[in-house]
Amino acid sequence: MKRFEHAWQDYKWIDIEDPKKEDFVNLAEELEIPMQAIATCMDPEHLPRVEYLDHCTMIILRHFDNRARPAAGTIQELSTKLVFFVGKKYVLTLHRTPLPCIEEKKDKVPFEQITMPQLIGRIFVKAFQSFENPLDELVAKMDAIEGRIYALRRKSILREGYHVKRRASGFKKIFKFTEAVINSLQQHSRIHSLNYDLVRDPLGRLIFDSDNIVEEITGLLNLHLALMSQKTNEASFKTNEIMRILTVVSIFFLPLNFLAGVYGMNFKHMPELDHYYGYYTVLGAMVIIAIGILAWVWHKGWLSKDDFKP
User: Distance of alpha carbon 124 from its chain centroid, rounded?
Assistant: First the structure.
């Protein structure tokens, strides 16, 4: 456990990094915090929420986790917990790993004279701002996907687009839960003089950006699927055209092959074989049959690229 403490005239700030079970017992006795609340506050599954206890208020926020994998998409995979216990004369923050918003504030507080609401508000804002760079990265990936779609370089777009959408959706859930926490704090007025407008401003931008990313990547994926479907339809149309041409050609040759097959049989007693004009008669019959088939096919419209007539 790492403990940092700084006291002002009317309150003190205690920061605990990577607390152990025995630390929870000591903190509960020192600050009169219910043991059950402080013992379960570091559960990694907790979402942003606020709980009003007898002598303090417990606030759970999420801070972006720099160790998150590129394919991470759930709230727990994307972020780590930052827990506040706010009493009348103290602010207690707990977290598992070093957080930039806490480390930066530790360096500044010895030279600042700030009120408790100002301290809480500034840490809130810094925690929210930890999500700005990850969202900018998603926007850059989305722009790259859009360029590849229009450049017809569509390999792996569905997988990459799915990861962008899943990640943006995870961020969006975090921001929506956090917004509910801020609304609840403002309604109950447990933290007096907190500048909620200052806190809401970066959170509102994050909600807007995450909504925009989800909508745009959904549109790009739909466009990609539509273009792939169009390409498949074009290939199917070409195949149908080839089959149509072969079918029309086969219509001409089937009856002609039948006549050729009949007169190609080597039976001795075939009356037509001794006919003086038999050869010319059969050729004439073939021509008449071919012209008749051509007229029928033309009437049906099978020689054009339009749909066949019924």
Answer: 26
**Separation CA 196–CA 185 (nearest Å):** 9
* Angle ∠(276,262,295) on CA atoms, nearest 5: 90
Q: In whole angstroms, give the CA distance from residue 94 to residue 92.
A: 7
pTM (2 decimals)? 0.74
* The two three-digit tokens of residue 56, written as one number: 């303090």
Give the integer Cα–Cα distance in Å for 222 and 220: 5
- Residue with token string 């998150």: 68
Cα angle value 58/61/63 (rounded, 5°): 145
16 strand-pairing partners: 3, 94
| Helix-, strand-, coil-residue percentages of the chain, each rounded to 5 | 60, 10, 25
Residues 253 and 12: their CA atoms lie apart, in Å, by 99
Task: Work out the number of other CB atoms within 10 angstroms of the CB of residue 228.
Answer: 13
Low-confidence residues in the chain, pLDDT < 50 = 307-310
Alpha helices, H only, 41-98: 75-78
Tens digit of each residue's pLDDT (9 = 90 or more) over 272-289: 767 777 778 888 888 888
Please report the pLDDT score of residue 279 as a whole number.
78
3-class secondary structure, 66? coil
Asked whether 233 and 274 are in contact (CB, 8 A), the reply is: no
Sheet containing 90-95: order of strands: 2-7, 12-17, 90-95, 79-86, 57-64, 49-52
CB of 41 closer than 8 Å to CB of 60 = yes
Identify the H or E element spanning 254. Answer: helix 196-263
Helices marked H in 32-131: 35-40, 75-78, 100-108, 116-129
